[in-house]
Amino acid sequence: MFSRLRSLRSLRRDTRGVSVVEFAFIGPTIVLLILGVVDGARAVSEKLTLDQVVYRALEKAQVGSTQSDYDSFLKAEVVNAGFPSTAATVSTWLQCDNKAAVAIDQTCATGEQTTRYVQLTVTDTFQPSFAYGKMFLGADSTGNINLSSTASLRLQ
C-alpha cells in the first residue's frame, strides 16, 4: 500500500514530458493561425491583382484614342491580364449638368455641361488552401471568398 502511495507522490513531482503535453494543446492552434495568416496574405495579394487589372485597363482607356466601344476594349484588357471576360462588368453613362445619367451615346442640350464616365468592375473567387468555414475573411457557404474591384474614369 505504501509503495503505491510513494509511486503516486513521485509521479506528481515528475515533470518530464510536460512540454510535450503543453505542445499538444498549443501546437494545433499555432499551426492553424499560421495557415490562416498565409491564406489571408494570398487573398490580399489576389485583391491587389484585381485592383491593378482595373486601374491598368482604365489607364489604357484614358491614354488611348477615343473609343466607341469601351465594353470590348476594357474586357479585352481584363482577358489579357489572365481573367475571363465574364469577370468584367463595364458601365458607361453620360451626365448633363451633373443630373441623372443617360446613355453615353446621347447628347446634352445646348449649354449644358457634358460629362461622360466609364466604370469597370472585375470579380474573382479566391479559394483558401483549407476549408476554415464561413467566418474566415467573409467566406461564403462553400468556403470561397468573393473578391471585387471597381473603379470609374471621367472621360470628358
Description:
This protein is α+β, with helices and mostly antiparallel strands. It has one domain. The protein contains three helices and four strands. A four-stranded antiparallel sheet has the order 2-1-3-4, covered by helices on one side. α2 runs antiparallel to α3. The chain is rod-shaped and about 110 Å long. The termini are far apart. The model has no long low-confidence stretch (mean pLDDT 85).
Main β-sheet description:
4 strands, antiparallel
Order of helices and strands: HHHEEEE
Round the mean pLDDT to the nearest integer and report it: 85
Shape: rod-shaped
Number of strands: 4
Our measurement of the CA-to-CA distance between the termini, rounded to an integer number of angstroms, reads: 97 Å
Helix content: 40-55%
Low-confidence stretches: none
Secondary-structure-based class equals alpha+beta
Radius of gyration: 29 Å
Number of helices: 3
- The tally of domains stands at 1
Main-sheet strand order equals: 2-1-3-4
Strand-residue fraction? Answer: 15-25%
